[in-house]
Amino acid sequence: MAGGEGKRLRPLTDKLPKPLLPINERPLLDFLIEHSVRNGADNIIVCTGYLAEKVAEHIEKQDYGTFIRESRETTPLGTAGPLLPIKNELESEFIVLYSDVYTTVDLKKMLEFHTQKKSDATLLLHKSDHPQDSTVVTVDSSSRITGFVEKPGSEWKEHGNLTSAALYVLNKSVVDFIDTGKELDFAKDVFPQMLREGKKLYGYVSEEYTKDMGTAERYKEVEAYDAAAAKKMQKRIAVFLDRDGVINEEVDLLTKKEQLKLIPGAAEGIRLLNEKGILAIVVTNQPVVARNLVTEEQLLQIHRKLRGMLEEKGAHIDALYYCPHHPEKNHTEANNPKYRRECRCRKPNTGMVEQAAKTFKIDTKNSYVVGDETVDVQLGKNAGCTTILASTGYAGKDGKHEAKADYDCSNLNEACKLIAKLTGEKRK
Predict the structure, then answer these.
(1) 242 is catalytic
(2) Catalytic site residue 244?
(3) Are 255 and 190 members of one domain?
(4) Residue 293 domain-assigned?
């Protein structure tokens, strides 16, 4: 949710929308997108309003490498109203983040809690040091929400000190409680009405850092926390994997999920990376989008199918980045200027690796690129990674670049075994 005016932050928000306020030189919007991707999000909608053009322009300039788009409201309709225009795009279960709330909460665990409870709405709750002037949320022994108490004053001890941290996991049925054209707030209108009608609302209690930075004082607190957290965070090792010809069999211009077929041993190799604590991140050029052969929505379904095939074999991808662009002008069907352009993300450019490195705090110098084409090898060289050429797919015979890989392996499984050995030796 990125449409608020940020009145309490003026004059900072007079000409800059609050999602773009910098947190140590990085817009909060980018931090929240990166945090969502770290937690497995692959379908992101940014709901804008105030100074929407600036937010849209920022999104357009970024190569996030995931499916992201803007939904713009022309009339402010509260915190809940922006869901109505996108109701047909919502997943059956989805997460709502606010653009002025900095959070480190583990979204995967919160979603698991929501699913286990078969909840209609799950609210992130934390213990407040000023419950007397807040909306206290009461819960029973199973964490099911039993009521909302507005500013209980000196009677707060009767109700506890749990308050909403303005982060929700919701079932799509929540849109049934949002009236068209009405300005509605989740906390004041929608959730109390759901409770009155017997819907299951649960509180997910967490002490993970979450801060509303809606005032200048809190904004400074968030910046201080972020700077301190960055110093403590240890960089991780990753393997950047090409998709076609490395994980799944090479198909010229793959456009349907039914065309996906795992290369033997690929899942086992990725599972080994998972077991060793090494990030498995896919970076793939997908010009099929620019060439109007698939939409980004259809590509999302292809990638979800691939993730599912791997998960069935006990392996998981930590993130999947794709480049939808195609700068070449010899394809007349690539006529959408959004995609037909030069970019930083198309391999062998390093945009996708750089985005992943920011999001996951990756030590690229000690990380690896595994691919079946010379473009992957050149990517690795450009990014400063160790490169491994797999003999599957094109097996390096694409002839696009002269770069030579540091290692050659018969397939992804053998490459992952080599990486496990090399990283083990470095850690000794």
Answers:
(1) yes
(2) yes
(3) no
(4) yes
